[in-house]
């Protein structure tokens, strides 16, 4: 068995294969601090709310943080900002550790493989992802896993472009970041991130309209559509303006980052857009429209969107973990063959089960 883990600024999601099905476990990457009281402690310990106590405070972590924040009139806090561990949040590390342990669960055997997503270094900010990556590695190692980082954009290629020989441009529009990867037969030829995503859209639209950020986020997530009409005024109008601005910024950076020497002549590839920020209706068409005017040094056959945008990265990390496991098992040097085998579920699952049984029989 192997697992995939998407560690995002807003959502932490694990994926594992259960017979024919991929099973996901998800938590919001946020928490709220409430004052300790006997009543709070009793209430929490009788529930399955994820929480920890520290001195005079209780921290409610994950999906339940928002409802506790409303009841106790507190703000939720977030351990990550712009794609990596937040340096402004002193409680980031214990909160992330707790969420990751809950989402990943116990390893099914000691040293179970887990591929966890890590963004590429952002090109528009001077932060490095190394500290973030190493911290996650240590959480997962302590939990008994054999952790391996996978680039977030590459995970999109694994989950969404299996039918195109893992060749194309994958873009994950998240909360804190946008991650881009161009791959050719499962080999990344360009990966980068930009430190803007859904949070940036919300902050800008809130600032422009004078509305609280939370209000803007819920309008955006509820029924907002990108329909090529920018109604001036109102939150929706501001959201549309910043959505378009983000798309243009991403396209401009793709054009700048592509190294023409790495591009085969006549390259014609699909683009897949995914991530929570790609959810509004019209997003894919708007992106295709803006791409048409761009000066990208390869041609684009079509723009697709993922069927389940929130799960693409966890699914891709799982594909990578299973393929590596299959490769170790068979000694096959051909990575894309191994990936295909693990994508076409079923048989490799049987192999994994047999391996697992063998492993537990040894103990
Ligand atoms: N239906 C929706 N419409 C618009 N935006 C949405 C919708 N659902 C979620 N989002 C936005 O998607 C973002 C979260 O997406 P996702 O889970 O892909 O990000 P993440 O992986 O946690 O972040 P990152 O990869 O940047 O670290 C948030 O900005 C959220 O507001
Ligand atoms: Mg993400």
TrEMBL record:
Coiled coil: none annotated. InterPro entries: ATPase_NBD, Volactin. Transmembrane segments: none annotated. Pfam families: Volactin. Residues 321-363 are annotated as: Disordered. Gene3D superfamilies: 3.30.420.40. SUPFAM superfamilies: Actin-like ATPase domain (SSF53067). Residues 346-363 have a biased composition (Acidic residues). This is Cell division protein FtsA. The lineage of its organism: Archaea, Methanobacteriati, Methanobacteriota, Stenosarchaea group, Halobacteria.
């Amino acid at each position: 068995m192997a697992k995939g883990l998407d560690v995002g600024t807003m959502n932490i999601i694990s994926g594992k294969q259960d017979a024919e099905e991929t099973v996901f476990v998800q938590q919001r990457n946020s928490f709220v601090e409430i004052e300790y009281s006997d009543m709070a402690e009793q209430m929490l310990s009788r529930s399955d709310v994820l929480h920890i106590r520290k001195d005079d405070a209780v921290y409610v972590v994950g999906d339940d943080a928002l409802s506790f924040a409303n009841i106790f009139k507190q703000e939720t806090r977030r351990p990550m900002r712009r794609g990596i561990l937040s340096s402004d949040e002193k409680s980031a590390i214990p909160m992330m550790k707790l969420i990751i342990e809950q989402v990943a669960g116990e390893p099914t055997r000691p040293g179970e493989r887990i591929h966890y997503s890590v963004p590429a270094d952002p090109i528009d900010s001077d932060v490095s992802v190394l500290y973030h990556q190493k911290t996650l590695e240590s959480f997962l190692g302590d939990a008994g896993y054999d952790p391996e980082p996978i680039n977030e954009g590459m995970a999109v290629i694994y989950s969404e472009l299996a039918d195109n020989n893992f060749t194309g441009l994958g873009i994950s529009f998240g909360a804190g970041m946008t991650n881009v990867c161009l791959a050719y037969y499962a080999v990344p030829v360009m990966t980068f991130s930009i430190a803007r995503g859904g949070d940036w859209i919300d902050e800008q639209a809130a600032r422009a309209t004078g509305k609280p950020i939370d209000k803007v986020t819920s309008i955006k997530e509820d029924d907002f559509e990108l329909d090529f009409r920018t109604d001036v005024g109102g939150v929706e109008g501001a959201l549309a303006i910043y959505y378009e601005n983000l798309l243009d910024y991403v396209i401009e950076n793709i054009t700048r980052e592509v190294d023409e020497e790495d591009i085969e002549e006549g390259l014609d590839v699909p683009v897949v857009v995914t991530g929570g920020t790609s959810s509004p209706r019209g997003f894919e068409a708007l992106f295709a429209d803006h791409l048409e005017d761009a000066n990208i040094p390869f041609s684009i056959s079509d723009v697709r969107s993922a069927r389940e945008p929130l799960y693409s990265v966890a699914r891709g990390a799982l594909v990578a973990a299973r393929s590596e496991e299959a490769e170790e098992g068979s000694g096959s040097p051909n990575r894309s063959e191994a990936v295909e085998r693990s994508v076409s579920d079923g048989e490799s699952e049987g192999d994994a089960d047999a391996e697992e049984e063998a492993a537990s029989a040894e103990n």
